[in-house]
Specification:
The protein has one helix spanning 3-24; strands at residues 30-33, 38-41, 43-51, 54-66, 75-83, 88-91. Strands 1, 2, 3, 4, 5 and 6 form a 6-stranded antiparallel sheet that branches. A hairpin with an 8-residue loop joins strand 4 (54-66) and strand 5. The chain is of the alpha+beta class and 113 residues long. The protein has one domain. Helix content is 19%, strand content 38%. It contains 1 helix and 6 strands; from the N terminus they run H-E-E-E-E-E-E. Mean pLDDT is 86; it is low at 102-113.
Length: 113
């Protein structure tokens, strides 16, 4: 496989992942971003732990969707993340979820231009 073929494949996978995200984002209440993954979920619990002066975060989610183009199944029943890095948790604003407006994408989801 040439470098060009690989780049084309990854671009197609990213577009497919974006389309799936666009289709499912309205089902969820929270966006959780860690240093390694991006999750959508309706239910989470976060605990802050301190061991020998080191602080780390434990985030547990139920019925989540994970942004990862290499996973064959992105819906997961239970997720537990342990990280020493920042965790960003945001509640989705329902009025901002219409990704077809002013997103740079046409109604077919194809990039414009």
């Amino acid at each position: 496989m040439s470098a060009e073929d690989l780049e084309k494949y990854e671009t197609e996978m990213e577009l497919k992942l974006y389309r799936e995200y666009r289709d499912v984002v309205g089902l969820f209440t929270y966006v959780i971003e860690t240093d390694r993954r991006f999750y959508l979920t309706n239910d989470y619990e976060m605990q802050v732990h301190s061991v020998q002066g080191e602080v780390f975060f434990e985030v547990s989610m139920a019925d989540a969707w994970v942004w990862d183009m290499y996973r064959p199944a992105r819906f997961v029943k239970q997720v537990r993340v342990l990280t020493f890095k920042d965790v960003n948790i945001e509640e989705l604003n329902r009025s901002e979820l219409d990704l077809t407006q002013d997103s740079g994408f046409g109604s077919s989801g194809e990039p414009s231009g």
